[in-house]
Amino acid sequence: MMELKHLRYFVAVAAEGSFHRAAERLCIAQPALSRRIRDLEEDLDVILFHRSARGVRLTPAGKVLHAEALQILDRLTQARLRTQQAAAGKFGVLNIGLTTVVAEMRAAVAAIGQARHRVPEVEFKLHLIPSDRQVSALNRGDIDIGLLYRRPPHPPGLAYRDLRTDRYVVMVPASHRLAGRTSVRLADLEGEDMMFPSPELRPETYREMLEACQRGGLEPRIVLQAEGLINMVAEGIAIALYNSALAENAKIPGVVYLDVEDLDIPLQLSALWEKERETPALLALVQLLETAFVGSAKGGQGKRSPARRKAG
Fold first, then answer.
1. 97, 152, 171, 174: which one has the fewest Cβ atoms less than 10 Å from its Cβ?
2. What domains can be seen in the chain, in order of their start residue?
3. pLDDT on residue 305
4. Closest CA to 172 of 227, 232, 100, 246
């Protein structure tokens, strides 16, 4: 049966034009090498070399096998290299989880784009997953790194880098009774129709926001379970608590963003991943994210904006 070692021996003899020199190159005894080549010829039922006192040269059948053997051995070398690169994270797929908020952040998107150019052998796949579900996705192996708003306590087995801290503001129509204020307290929103996260889709966020409102003396009157529907606010359907990171870039006429003095929910944007599954591509992305967010903070992103902002 033809084996890879037979092909390596055959290629070495063809390259050297001599069994003696090939045996020295392969560090085996010449009689053993000769037997291997005879075994290969018998297996294929062909003569591969013309033998003479001056050395050996390929027969027509030998030339065909030589060309094929070179391709096979080259592909084997490439397969070994790519397998090792994949194990080291220099080849393969990096699955990235990110929230819709993060997907709107230029710094995050720019870092991912730079990482793709820095590690072109790795395919970067993006998955939109709410923060509430990303830790489970990491534990299942559905994603390799998550960009999310993390909550204490820190999940065991996960490494993280904090990137920026945001907060909630409240969105109200420009014609709203509170629109002229510089800031509000939660109790000021009592009786207002509100948009709130779905407890089924985002249970942790729903619980966190509800408890924070109740601590501030507000029992939310929820009329719509959704998030980010700014036009609903503009038309006076409902007011909504909104991530300040999105408010920085939203340009919807007729909507005002107000600081909420006593809403004590820090939004800590972080990159999370399993320490045991670190790869060069993953760490390169983390480094680029840190650099991008430091630069964006210097430009004003992530800082506390003026209390009253009117879009458009």
1. 152
2. 4-87 (1.10.10.10), 92-165+267-304 (3.40.190.10), 168-260 (3.40.190.10)
3. 39
4. 232
Q: Which of 164-187 are b and which e, b meaning 16 or more Cβ less than 10 Å from the residue's Cβ?
A: bbbbbbbbbbbebebeebeebebe
Selection from 8, 41, 37 nearest residue 25 by Cα: 8
Give the pLDDT of residue 132: 86
pLDDT of residue 237: 94
Asked if 264 and 189 touch (Cβ cutoff 8 Å), the reply is: no
Closest CA to 168 of 6, 28, 305: 305
The pLDDT assigned to 144 comes to 94
Q: Read off the tokens for 279.
A: 């790869």
Cis-peptide, bond into residue 156, ω within 30° of zero: no
The helix-helix angle for 106-118 and 280-298 (nearest 10°) equals 140
Confidence at residue 306, expressed as pLDDT on a 0 to 100 scale? 38
Closest CA to 129 of 138, 120, 121: 138
Sites in the chain below the pLDDT cut of 50: 299-312
